[in-house]
Design brief:
Blueprint (H helix, E strand, L loop, with lengths): L10 E5 L6 E5 L2 E2 L26 E4 L8 H7 L4 E4 L13 H14 L5 E7 L8 H7 L2 H6 L12 E2 L13 E2 L6 H16 L6 E5 L31 H24 L3 E5 L26 H7 L5 E5 L5 E2 L9 E2 L1 H16 L3 E9 L16 H10 L7 E6 L12 H4 L10 E3 L7 E2 L1 E2 L10 E3 L4 H9 L6 E5 L15 E5 L9 E2 L11 E4 L4 E5 L3 E6 L4 E6 L16
Parallel strand pairs: 4-5, 5-6, 6-9, 9-10, 10-11, 11-14, 12-14, 14-15
Antiparallel strand pairs: 1-2, 3-16, 7-8, 12-13, 16-24, 17-23, 18-22, 19-21, 20-21, 20-23, 24-25, 25-26
Length: 567
Amino acid sequence: MSSGGMLTPKIIWACGTGVLLCVATGSAHQVGPPHLQENTRSFPGEWHATWPRVPAMIFGANATGPENATQLGLDALYPLVIYGWQHEDNSSDWHHVGQGLSDQCVALKKSGATSLCVVYRSAANSMPWFDDDAAVMSNATRKNTWFLKNSETGEPLADGPFHPDPYWPISQTWYYDFRNPEVRDYFATTIVDTVAGIDAVDGVFFDMVDYIVCGAFAFEPCDPVKKRTPCGLTFPGGKKGMRDYFSAVWGTMRAVGARLASLGKLGIYSSTNFMQNLSYVPITPQRMEPGRCIQPQDDALKLLDGVPFMRYYEQWIDGNAPTKNATRLDFNRSQCIWQIQNALLEAKAGVATGMHTDVEPMWLADPSTTPALLAVEPSVAAFLVTAPLDIPSFYGFSFGKHWYDMSYQHIDLYNRDVGAPLGPPVSVGCCDGDLLYHTTIHDAEGHTDLMNAALQSPQQCSSLCCSMDECAGFLWTPSQGDDSGNCTVGKSCCWIKPTTGRLWEWIYDPDPSGIFYDYVSGVKNGLTFRREFEKATVDVRCSEPSGQIRYKNLTNVHDAFEPSLTG
């Protein structure tokens, strides 16, 4: 696209008041195909896509003891069940939690459930309530050689202390040093051995895989006032030491994943990393944002080439209820675009994905009194946009930032028959005619507008932006606030922007009385995604963000595929 040339929009959107109730004509940008890309991963036989039902998961636990028959029946509604480390944490046998998680999978399968069942392990730190970790921590030699060190004390890098317990006198968790080959062997042998002969366990969930090298607080000096742990970590060699650790962590996960696959099981890896070349990457990334890790996720995928695994997103487009009486949730627009783009790239590489949405704040503990807690359609729609056709991927959400069974609801969206995806999603931006009404965008910090122009309509502003290679987006206002450049106070003005900044700093104002209601913006890199399924059309607009699942040929949108108690 040469500077000065006018671009004819490829797609025209005729929208009603609902913004997403739009009809598109023309063409748009295909952002896949996530399921046609050749990949070298072959997934174990029990792991497969679960269309036509929405592939739902639960990541729960029962604090007081094993799941009873009622809860097992609820668990069985989910194609994927993960039991977390805190399962039975108020029982007298919690210090043998590893065996308890496996026993729970056995009980689930004996109940008649066909769900996949996965057990928890930490990939970052030792947990003394797991017997094998406790044995390592009690070994003086391994204490000195298997763990990262707090540079201020010379002791193992630790979280805690936690409440005292007579069954495990070490009331901390210690962070493993994966640069030690004995640690790598321990994960690939001892930890995998705990599930090797248990047919009811279909996989192992490894938490916090890249926590240390993706913006952990561990590198901050220890503060006796804040008492934040872990702290005091330094790597010999600085960033090179961090890169060595990055390679060691993912090299370990390669060995673990390969062995699990040979046993017909799957490794699930919780990561906060992102691929390179995403749109809207922040200049100064915070933890869990693109660019925060010492190396990009592309490098991890190279180390995992040929090994089947699932990448787990801990905060998939999280929702927040702004008040106790809220009728809708606010979702993170930055997460929306970063995570969708990243998941699509991973799908191309043959990576399965698991997405967990957390609805906050913590005081929201009862969805029956706050219906907005269950209004997670934007997050579900974003998952459906990215889910591969023939690779196992799952979605789940909990509310109140809790990790127990009570925080999960088997919502109506899970029951609906969307059918299988008909193809990859498409993405549209302002050069395709997709304008962001009621939206104000900002430059990234340190950047200023390229120019302004007294243009009469947002469509003219969009055409000007699309004619300029250096334009990343625009802002159009019907009433300029002051005389500036080529624009006059009180008249319409078009601002051309070289960057589009952090999406979370954008303003979306759908209130007709709001000061920004009449503003219109646009970006070249599309923030709207659409995907066709056999029985539904899924739309996600990350600029707001919002999402909608529109069902085809149904007189009642609640017509549903009803799962049995055995999944």
